[in-house]
Write a sequence for this structure.
């Protein structure tokens, strides 16, 4: 498999494994692609809803031209210090960076002198720009539409999602967190997808309220983007072998007519280096699982794309029922995750007399919220339609 880009390029063009491209981890690459896909789909749907008048712009004052504020000086000086502090350390410890990029970048190790030089260079650059500004022009009123804010919305979703995913992972693996809190908090692993959805949702909601953007239409607009991005992310899980594989299987049935790897896979060169050594392998990732496991990331990718296709197909007819599309997303997402958990490796808990994983418990909540919310949205829509019809009759 492909724990990082060097392994993929090795199979494609024959370059050496564990070379400079090894710092680009496959899971991180597909996570980035997932955000890009989500942002593009969200932008398309927001623009459609703006054209039909469901979403409106917000008046804002902007100063034309390039300007530098006090906040720019502060934030960019800090950025310069961080880059100067860490980049020389990464270069000097490249082997460590290859093994554990997130751990290396998030560690407190670095060069203080490099940080000071980086801060000074950034400050000088922005001071030079600011000194040429002269007198600032008058602010001009402009209309800013929700589709113009896709970048900040995506960033809020990413930050909130990361914090939520880490928080839920800490709760799920509390004993492991107590043993080494710092390592668990700052490691690149240990992320719970439902925690990411909830955390990202809260962050985006607060951003929308701040800018007085209608929440319900944006929820509908983001639903197809969320599930398709989830499928893209799961491709990264499968290719890198990040531990999201399913339970072990004894053998592939003789009646199975599709490629064997769709039923059971042993994840050679997995990024976690779990399993047994691969004979003759001298690379950084040289382990393979001793038994076949269900390739659950593949199943989740296929189901996510199918759900995304359904949501995209029905989004226009359901525009008259704000939040209905999101309710359908919640329900289908919950169904998908609830049943896939039966063949995944996760800790289980006693819940209402059943043995369920944390993800299954949350999935039940998603399904219930989708059903209740959908019924409420439908009834509210029907009532609004009836009231509008009565007003038309009286007007006639």
């Amino acid at each position: 498999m492909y724990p990082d880009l060097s392994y993929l390029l090795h199979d494609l063009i024959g370059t050496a494994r564990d070379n400079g491209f090894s710092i680009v981890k496959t899971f991180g690459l597909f996570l980035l692609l997932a955000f890009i896909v989500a942002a593009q789909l969200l932008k398309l749907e927001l623009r459609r809803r703006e054209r039909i008048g469901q979403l409106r712009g917000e008046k804002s004052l902007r100063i034309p031209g390039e300007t530098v504020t006090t906040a720019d000086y502060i934030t960019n000086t800090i950025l310069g210090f961080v880059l100067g502090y860490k980049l020389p350390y990464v270069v000097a410890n490249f082997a460590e960076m290859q093994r554990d990029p997130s751990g290396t970048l998030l560690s407190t190790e670095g060069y203080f002198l490099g940080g000071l030089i980086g801060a000074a260079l950034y400050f000088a650059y922005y001071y030079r720009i600011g000194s040429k500004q002269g007198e600032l022009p008058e602010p001009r009123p402009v209309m800013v539409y929700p589709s113009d804010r896709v970048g900040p919305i995506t960033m809020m979703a990413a930050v909130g999602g990361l914090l939520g995913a880490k928080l839920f992972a800490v709760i799920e693996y509390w004993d492991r967190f107590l043993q080494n809190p710092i390592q668990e908090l700052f490691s690149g692993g240990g992320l719970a997808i439902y925690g990411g959805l909830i955390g990202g949702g809260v962050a985006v909601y607060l951003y929308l309220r701040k800018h007085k953007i209608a929440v319900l239409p944006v929820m509908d607009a983001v639903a197809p983007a969320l599930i398709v991005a989830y499928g893209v992310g799961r491709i990264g899980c499968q290719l890198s072998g990040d531990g999201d594989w399913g339970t072990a299987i004894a053998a592939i049935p003789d009646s199975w007519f599709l490629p064997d790897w769709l039923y059971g896979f042993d994840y050679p060169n997995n990024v976690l280096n779990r399993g047994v050594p691969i004979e003759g392998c001298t690379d950084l990732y040289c382990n393979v699982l001793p038994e076949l496991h269900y390739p659950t990331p593949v199943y989740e990718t296929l189901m996510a794309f199918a759900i995304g296709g359904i949501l995209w197909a029905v989004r226009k007819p359901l525009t008259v029922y704000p939040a209905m599309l999101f309710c359908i997303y919640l329900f289908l997402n919950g169904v998908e995750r609830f049943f896939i958990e039966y063949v995944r490796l996760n800790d289980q808990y006693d819940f209402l007399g059943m043995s369920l994983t944390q993800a299954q418990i949350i999935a039940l909540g998603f399904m219930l919220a989708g059903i209740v919310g959908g019924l409420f949205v439908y009834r509210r829509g029907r009532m609004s339609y009836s009231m509008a019809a009565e007003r038309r009759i009286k007007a006639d």
About this structure: Residues 358-395 form the longest helix (38 residues).
